[in-house]
Automatic annotation (TrEMBL):
<protein>
    <submittedName>
        <fullName>3-dehydroquinate dehydratase</fullName>
    </submittedName>
</protein>
<keyword id="KW-0547">Nucleotide-binding</keyword>
<dbReference type="InterPro" id="IPR027417">
    <property type="entry name" value="P-loop_NTPase"/>
</dbReference>
<dbReference type="Pfam" id="PF00005">
    <property type="entry name" value="ABC_tran"/>
</dbReference>
<dbReference type="InterPro" id="IPR003439">
    <property type="entry name" value="ABC_transporter-like_ATP-bd"/>
</dbReference>
<keyword id="KW-0067">ATP-binding</keyword>
<dbReference type="InterPro" id="IPR017871">
    <property type="entry name" value="ABC_transporter-like_CS"/>
</dbReference>
<dbReference type="InterPro" id="IPR051782">
    <property type="entry name" value="ABC_Transporter_VariousFunc"/>
</dbReference>
<feature type="domain" description="ABC transporter">
    <location>
        <begin position="2"/>
        <end position="233"/>
    </location>
</feature>
<keyword id="KW-0813">Transport</keyword>
<dbReference type="GO" id="GO:0016887">
    <property type="term" value="F:ATP hydrolysis activity"/>
</dbReference>
<dbReference type="InterPro" id="IPR003593">
    <property type="entry name" value="AAA+_ATPase"/>
</dbReference>
<dbReference type="GO" id="GO:0005524">
    <property type="term" value="F:ATP binding"/>
</dbReference>
Length: 252
């Protein structure tokens, strides 16, 4: 289980990115985290994965407090950031080996596991090449393969579908379903309503750092009334009547 208890993050400069957020995601679930730009999704994800510390509140992953026992908790997590984090100077295979060493994956299972993932995401051909020759999508795939290579129980994926080609996106969605169906957790953020509707068991909608809704898409639609998920989402996260001064733009 992922458990957030009244989690708040205030960045330097007093930006309250996440405000008293409480949430539980259970084993067996694909949980989609939705919200407009700047809503607090990445900040929440970084607190779940222990990349940043909450200003207040507590995060537990499978019963382990990530602040008290970060190494133990991080072993259970496969994290893919919104921008692929890979070591550019290494070859693809060297980077994967580095991650497998960090997570102490036994040597006898490495080849089989990596081969399967490389085949699934069609990256085998580039694995001997330096990462700095990869396209953005290839780096994203490498980062995904690295995150999944140590067989983590909890997948935390920040915008994982954007940037993947259609076939890889399809395969990843299938893998997400299989992973959850095997009693694990998939927590991911997305802007794509169609994906949320198709694959999530539950969704959470965050707006201006606050959780506005948690439940199934059907429950959300029932609560909000008529409309597509996209229309209802826009209604919940509308910015209101903020007046913006565009006078500095040159209209001539
Ligand atoms: N390192 C930082 N320092 C200061 N403010 C930050 C920092 N990172 C994010 N913020 C601010 O915190 C708020 C939430 O940002 P966050 O990146 O969590 O949003 P998001 O929902 O992931 O957005 P997007 O969909 O655009 O990726 C925004 O107001 C952002 O400007």
């Amino acid at each position: 289980m992922i458990k957030l208890n009244k989690v708040t993050k205030v960045y330097a400069g007093e930006v309250k990115a996440v405000n008293h957020l409480s949430l539980e995601v259970k084993a067996g679930e694909i949980f989609g985290f939705l919200g407009p730009n700047g809503a607090g999704k990445t900040t929440t994800i970084k607190m779940i994965t222990g990349v940043i510390k909450p200003t207040e509140g507590k995060v537990e992953v499978c019963g382990i407090d990530i602040q008290k026992e970060p190494v133990k908790a991080k072993r259970l997590i496969g994290y893919v950031a919104d921008e692929p984090i890979v070591m550019e100077k290494l070859k693809g295979i060297e980077y994967l080996n580095f991650i497998l060493n960090v997570f102490q994956v036994p040597k006898d299972v490495r080849a089989e596991r990596i081969e399967g993932l490389l085949k699934a995401f069609k990256l085998s051909h580039a694995i001997m090449d330096p990462v700095n020759t990869y396209s953005h999508g290839m780096k994203q795939k490498l980062s995904l393969i690295a995150a999944l290579s140590h067989n983590p129980k909890v997948w935390v994926l920040d915008e994982p579908i954007v940037g993947l080609d259609p076939e890889s996106a399809f395969i990843l969605k299938k893998m997400m379903r299989n992973h959850a169906d095997s009693g694990n957790i998939v927590f991911f953020s997305t802007h794509i309503m169609e994906i949320a509707e198709k694959i999530c068991d539950r969704i959470g909608i965050i707006h201006k750092g606050q959780l506005r809704f948690v439940g199934t898409v059907e429950e959300f639609k029932k609560l909000q009334g008529e409309g597509t998920l996209e229309e209802l989402f826009l209604e919940v996260t509308r910015s209101g009547t903020e007046k913006i001064d565009f006078s500095y733009l040159d209209n001539s």
